[in-house]
């Protein structure tokens, strides 16, 4: 169109009509696009009334916890009532604590015959039998050594008078140990003669303390003593120490000398000792004899080195 040329009224009317038609068409398309876009981005509401979907009720956290605890309890019961296997163990039962006793070394126990005596005739008979074994060794020019230990009922109140020695255990080889319930039998003359014989060596840890207690309680003076802790410091390398029987057992044998408090601190004055008490007592006496046999085969350390370290230990 030539805008410099004059425009008639008819041409102006045609232009306005064409403009109105184009505007109407544009508006119609815009409305249609808006409706389609709204349909695409609109949020779909749940179909609450549909019969194909079931309503899911809200579950409270407390209900979940209660249900979970119930399942754990049921799982625990089912494990104990059925054939249990760790692979089938539920995660809930694995959360339950378990107390496990861990033993690093195998336990050492006396495996021979335990002769238990609690009356005077029984103690005298056992002593005569023991003396016969000792005399046979002496005839063969063998050194006679006896592992010796005592037990008594502990006191737990301050100021309470200590109880008398209740049990004496004696062992001289791997075949037989004698457990004498002296709180009931006392120490008959035959046993006293054996204990006071200076040719028979008695060995143990802190054996001088045991001998002192027997002297105070029964007026029997045990002679010819050798402390295993002192002997170990004479034989073993390293700085001297105050060895316990359990520690020395582990050092020399690699085994554990069990000392359960239920037995160690139990009542040794009972009428008849339990099987556990008999095994405990016999093992202590046997281990004392056994450790001496091991230590005496070791060469002595240089005396000057031992002397200096012993002085340091005592200071």
From TrEMBL:
Name of protein: 3'-5' exonuclease
Subcellular location: Nucleus
Protein's UniProt keywords contain Membrane: no
Biological process according to GO: nucleobase-containing compound metabolic process
Entry-linked Pfam families: DNA_pol_A_exo1
Native organism taxonomy: Eukaryota, Viridiplantae, Streptophyta, Embryophyta, Tracheophyta
Domain 3'-5' exonuclease: 121-300
Biased composition (Polar residues): 72-91
Gene3D superfamilies: Ribonuclease H-like superfamily/Ribonuclease H (3.30.420.10)
């Amino acid at each position: 169109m030539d805008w410099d040329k004059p425009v008639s009224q008819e041409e102006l009317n045609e232009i306005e009509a064409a403009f109105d038609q184009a505007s109407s068409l544009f508006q119609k398309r815009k409305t249609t696009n808006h409706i389609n876009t709204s349909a695409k981005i609109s949020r779909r509401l749940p179909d609450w009334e549909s019969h194909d979907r079931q309503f899911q009720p809200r579950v409270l956290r407390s209900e979940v916890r209660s249900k979970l605890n119930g399942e754990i309890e049921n799982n625990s019961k089912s494990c104990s009532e059925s054939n249990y296997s760790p692979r089938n163990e539920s995660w809930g039962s694995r959360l339950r604590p378990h107390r496990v006793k861990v033993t690093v070394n195998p336990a050492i126990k006396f495996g021979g015959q335990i002769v238990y005596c609690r009356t005077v005739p029984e103690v005298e008979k056992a002593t005569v039998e023991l003396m016969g074994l000792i005399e046979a060794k002496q005839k063969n020019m063998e050194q006679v050594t006896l592992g010796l230990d005592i037990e008594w009922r502990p006191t737990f109140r301050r100021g309470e008078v200590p109880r008398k020695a209740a049990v004496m255990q004696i062992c001289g080889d791997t075949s037989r140990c004698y457990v004498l319930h002296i709180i009931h039998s006392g120490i008959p003359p035959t046993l006293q003669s054996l204990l006071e014989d200076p040719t028979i060596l008695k060995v143990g840890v802190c054996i001088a303390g045991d001998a002192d207690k027997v002297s105070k309680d029964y007026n029997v003076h045990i002679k010819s003593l050798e402390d295993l802790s002192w002997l170990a410091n004479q034989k073993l390398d390293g700085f001297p120490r105050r060895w316990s029987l359990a520690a020395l057992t582990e050092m020399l044998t690699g085994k554990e000398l069990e000392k359960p408090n239920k037995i160690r601190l139990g009542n040794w004055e009972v009428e008849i000792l339990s099987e556990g008490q008999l095994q405990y007592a016999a093992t202590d006496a046997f281990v004392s004899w056994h450790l001496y046999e091991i230590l005496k085969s070791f060469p002595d350390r240089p005396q000057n080195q031992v002397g200096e370290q012993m002085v340091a230990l005592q200071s």
